[in-house]
Design brief:
Layout (H helix, E strand, L loop, with lengths): L8 E2 L6 E3 L16 H14 L5 H22 L3 H4 L3 E4 L5 E4 L2 H12 L4 E5 L6 E4 L4
Antiparallel strand pairs: 1-2, 2-4, 3-4, 3-5, 5-6
């Protein structure tokens, strides 16, 4: 895939690429992810346990990683070769924001999606922040 075949458009800032969610009539459903409230409640339990290495912390880390990996594999992986090393935010519905700079992706996330959680990583690399919200 490349920019000419993915029908991407320019984001609100120079250097930001928006890849729309697939609309090819496929029967694939949006990947189910924890809501902001569920994630916040879980994070509070992890904090009260005192460590990300606690059983609660490990369970949260595992669940978040699984969601992130599913989104990356389904939506971003086909673009990996063309955008290797760039930052990408992946909405659970499949829309992606791609840019060279992390702050550009975060600004566009806030403008387009508000406080929704999304997978956030660099193409071709393990997740740096598996999930990110413009709020946190």
């Amino acid at each position: 895939m490349n920019e000419t075949t993915c029908k991407a458009d320019q984001g609100t800032a120079q250097g930001v690429l928006i890849v729309p969610a697939p609309s090819n009539g496929s029967s694939e459903q949006e990947i189910k992810v924890m809501s902001f409230e569920e994630r916040a409640a879980w994070w509070e339990r992890v904090k009260s346990s005192g460590s990300m290495h606690s059983p609660e912390g490990q369970a949260m880390s595992s669940a978040v990683r699984k969601e992130s990996d599913q989104l990356y594999e389904r939506y971003a992986k086909p673009y990996e070769e063309d955008y290797y090393g760039k930052f990408v935010a992946i909405h659970p519905g499949g829309e992606m924001i791609i840019a060279d700079k992390r702050y550009l992706v975060l600004e566009e996330m806030r403008n387009r999606w508000g406080e929704i959680w999304c997978a956030f990583r660099r193409f071709g690399n393990l997740p740096m922040f598996e999930w990110k919200s413009a709020r946190w």
